[in-house]
Amino acid sequence: MTELLFLKDSYMKQFDAKVIKAEGKEIILDKTAFYPQGGGQPSDTGVIVCEGKEYKVLQVRKKEGEAVHEVDSEGIKEGEAVTGMIDWTRRHKLMRGHTACHLLSYVVNKETGALITGNQIGEERCRIDFDLENFDREQIKSFEEKTNELIKSGAEVTIRELPREEAFKIPTIVKLKNVLPPSVEMIRVVSIEGLDEQACGGTHVKDIKEIGRIEIIKAENKGKNNRRIYFTLKD
What we know:
Blueprint: E1 3-4, E2 14-23, E3 26-29, E4 31-32, E5 46-50, E6 53-63, E7 66-71, E8 81-86, H1 88-112, E9 115-120, E10 126-131, H2 137-153, E11 157-163, H3 164-167, E12 186-192, E13 196-199, E14 213-221, E15 226-234
Parallel strand pairs: 1-4
Antiparallel strand pairs: 2-3, 2-8, 3-7, 5-6, 5-8, 6-7, 9-10, 10-15, 11-12, 12-13, 14-15
Helix pairs in contact: 1-2
């Protein structure tokens, strides 16, 4: 299995690895800092350098416990040593957006009790879906203001792994409407100090101050008891 370096260090921008499988433009490494698409977070992009040549990493996806890197041209061979470099500007924006999703969902859940039914993180905007009967403009504005107040105050973001049974004793872990499948024995828990704890496999900032500020740009109904909020990040 590919060792996923980002799980322990979201700030790793460069790493050395060995190619364990290469089929055309699809490369599998023994370890990687590239995030493979999943959990509403897009994959990282960047470059893999092999024998002095740069290969653009177009996307990364999970496949049978491995992280498959799709590069822009063939030439990388099994057994070769490579260096991977993350597109850091893009990664950091996605980190900020992902942590902002956690914080906004914390605020909405605290105010309304709503559970999260889905999310999508993007460079330009992010969205979160909630199991909520209704909301109004004043509520939405208050969600934004309360989230930004928390960001301004700052709070440390930490990550740890817990056995499933222990993790699900944490009340906020069950905010997700569809809980993790029984096959997952160890739960990666992302904690915002004094505020929120969620099961999550994504990348996050070290302190919520790094988020900057959020601006809710749209809210809409997506069916019975399903409300969607879109927001963007402001520096």
